[in-house]
Prior knowledge:
The structure holds two protein chains of two kinds.
Chain A: H1 2-15, H2 17-46, H3 52-56, H4 60-69, H5 71-105, H6 110-156, H7 159-194, H8 199-212, H9 214-239, H10 246-282
Chain B: H1 2-14, E1 20-29, E2 34-44, E3 51-57, H2 69-74, E4 88-96, E5 99-100, E6 106-107, E7 120-129, E8 134-144, E9 153-155, E10 158-161, E11 167-168, E12 170-172, E13 175-177, E14 192-201, E15 205-208, E16 211-218, E17 221-231, E18 236-239, E19 242-251, E20 256-265, H3 272-289, E21 297-301, E22 313-315, E23 318-320, H4 333-343, H5 360-378, E24 385-387, E25 390-392, H6 394-404, H7 421-443, H8 445-459, H9 466-477, H10 482-488, E26 496-506, E27 524-533, E28 540-546, E29 551-556, E30 562-569, E31 573-578, E32 594-596, H11 602-619
Parallel strand pairs in B: 1-14, 20-21, 21-23
Antiparallel strand pairs in B: 1-2, 2-8, 3-7, 3-11, 4-5, 4-8, 6-7, 9-10, 10-18, 12-13, 14-17, 15-18, 16-17, 19-20, 22-23, 24-25, 26-27, 27-30, 28-29, 28-31, 31-32
Amino acid sequence: MIGNSLKKGINKGILNWRGVIILWLINFLFSLIFFLPSSSLFSKAFSKSMITEKMVKGDLSIFLEFMTVYKNEIGVLFSLSFSLFLIYWIANLFLSGGIISILKEESKNVRDIFSYAPNYFWRFIKLSLLFIPFLILFLIIWRILGKLRELFFNLTGSEIFTFYFSLLTIFIAILIFLLLRILFDYGRIRVVFEEERFITISLLRTVKFVFKNFWKTFLLYIILTISLLLFYIPIYLVFKIPVFSPILSLLIFLLSQLLLLFRSFLSFLFYSAQTELYRSLRV
Amino acid sequence: MRRLLIMFLFSSLIFSQEVVSYKIKAKLIPEEKIVKGEEIIIWKNITSKPTSEIYFHLYLNAFRNELSTFMRESGIERFRRKDIEWGYCEVREIKINGIDMKKKLHYVQPDDGNIYDRTLVKIPLDSPVNPGESISIYLIFESKLPKVLARSGYSRDFFMVAQWFPKIAVLREEGWNSHQYHRNSEFFSDFGKYEVEIRTPEKFKVVASGVKTNEWKEKGEIVRIFKEDNIHDFAWSASPNHKIFEEEFSMKEPEVKTKIILFLDRDHLRHKERYMKIIKKSIEFFSKNYGPYPYKTITVVDPPSHALQAGGMEYPTLITAGTTFWLPKGLLFLELVTLHEFGHQYWYGMCANNEFEEAWLDEGINSYSEVKGMRELFGEKTSVFNIFGFKFGDIDSQRLSYISIPSFDPIYRKSYEFFSGGSYSVNSYSKSALMLLTLERYLGEDKFSKIMREYFRRFQFKHPKTEDFIRVAEEVSGKNLKWFFDSFLFSDGTIDYRVERIMTKKLRKPEGKMDLKFKEEGNWESEVSVVREGSISFPVNIEILFEDGKKIKEFWDGKERWRKFKYVKPSKVISAIIDPEGILLLDRNRFNNSMTLKKNPFPLGMSFKALALFQSILFSF
Lengths: 283, 621
């Protein structure tokens, strides 16, 4: 069933390539807002300086000096980033309603994404708000685990034990985090598929659905997450390309955007594969 | 018996150059975190003037309450925590030449007048001690160790017993040099003989400064005797959970024979070889470069993770390092801290400057040595970490720390008078190290190496001052270096050279009535402008590159705020670099030290990488 969902999800991703491009385009446009001031900063610091020759060779110290000398400008960039993250998240939430709808209706028309999306936006906002207590619970659990670790350390004084306990707490935290993401994804899928308007009830039903089919939903999510992690290997390699010439700069741009297009496909796959699994499990 | 002992100590002092002799009996009461002690001090006035008072440091009183100078300077909030346990050092009894002086003892605060600070006591004497005369002092004291902070105290059943006994201050020609315990300062004491008897419950293992000469069991306790000459402090550590590893170390050129004692926490056993290797390499490096390590032992204390605050500190023949169970091989913090603290055996231990007043002489010179040592052992660009393709060197780490703090103070300043802890630390460690590395590059490595060896030779087992270092540097180099030290050591000024602009134009036949033939027609006129920001200057070379590949090196003393270099040549200037040899390590911004007219693809490439990174992050939302 998982394999089938993945297969169907991939097919739908390929068929809806326009949707993939829309996801990439929106991501790209948002990132341009960050790109403009950051490239102006790089230009200010490096355009005439020959120190970049050292940086090209991978001298980390020059990069760290850059972070120190231009810490004020970098601080502004960070603030801008956080605002962009928030706005992008809302935009993405808006689009997700449209994407799940076209997957439900098996439509290939990109316009449908935008026409369906408004129907679910407020419901998704409500769903997100309902996740706040879950997030608080997650933070509480994290804090409790931290306190437990401290307690064990104070009791035993053993650094080795505490080290492994810390690894365990990180593992538990990741599991909980993944579970929350799974619930959020299926929550949205359910709202669209069942046209539910009472979000609290919908969320409770989603929880029931996810736990009833825990291994299937969880395994699919893990496979998707691993494929996502694998994506970072080629992007890391692109980052390692030294910038000796304008052609190499252009190559970096093209390669990275190609990979990010694939990343966009993976984002789409999260929706499509999980939608397919939901479709087969709800029967 | 006591009289015999005093006579013995007197006679030993008369024949030695040491100023003071301590014989201490200490008993650790682990349940109460208390050390009870009895101390006999023979102190000799080696100045040319009589003194009618003496001063003692009671350093542990820095942790007595939140009103001590140490705590106030620290920002007491840092220590106002649930598990705080205060510490103290109480003198229960004191006799000088057999006369009870307890009532005359009073606390003094020469640095800040803080009446709540009890880290320094003064005792007026009934009769003055004349030049060359000695007095005997008998003390009974009790030291309560705080929960480990500022590298001293206990944590669970680990004890780092440092600055724990009443210690006599230093009398110099100009009078008593005695300071309170400050947040941003370490210590200053006279060289002397130490004989310390340490009594602990049987389960405790103990290491200490000096050589263990005897050990026996007595009523469920173990008594150990440690002795050492020519040291100016004594520290020890006790724990039931540590293992002691000992290895003999010897080398021929120069001749060194010593025993390495490693006091290793049970959770760090996997790092035993790393510790042993780096301490051997450190002895080798310092002995070869500065002079042979003369003591019979070097003890390395590895604090447990719950007592990390005890780590990274130096005492004569004993250092505390620090690591964690999980520390990977590529992270060289264990090596860096161990080498640094060992270096203090030279710069603090043997060349024993006043750390209250001239911290740069130990921390700065030692940080310089640390950079050199780490570079020799692990490579210039990989001496802090070299992991997963990320590399970082010690010299870069010093620079990063130097440029990250605004310059509010000169290096030469009393430790407790710096603007902040950060300023103290940057000036005393990083800026001083970079200053010495700059001087080394300016004078040449061989010459500077001779300066360092000579400084160590002259001031081993002495108390050098800043002027002593400058004198040696000038004598050995044969140069007047006043300008250098005035700029970088005594001034709070900064330096930032910048290539302001490069202008080029092709010369054409001039208009108007010409009386002479214009020879330069068809040539390029180029102008390179360099600017100095900041109040101090340093002579630098400027490398000018022309389009036809020819290079010119110009010299600029940096005294004027700016300088222009003009050329009329068949080829135009395409780039200029200030200080191409990288001699000046104290330039606060290296990005503007060069300029090129060639198109630089780097900013665009970096921008594309940043864009891709940002996009990847966005996709996770």
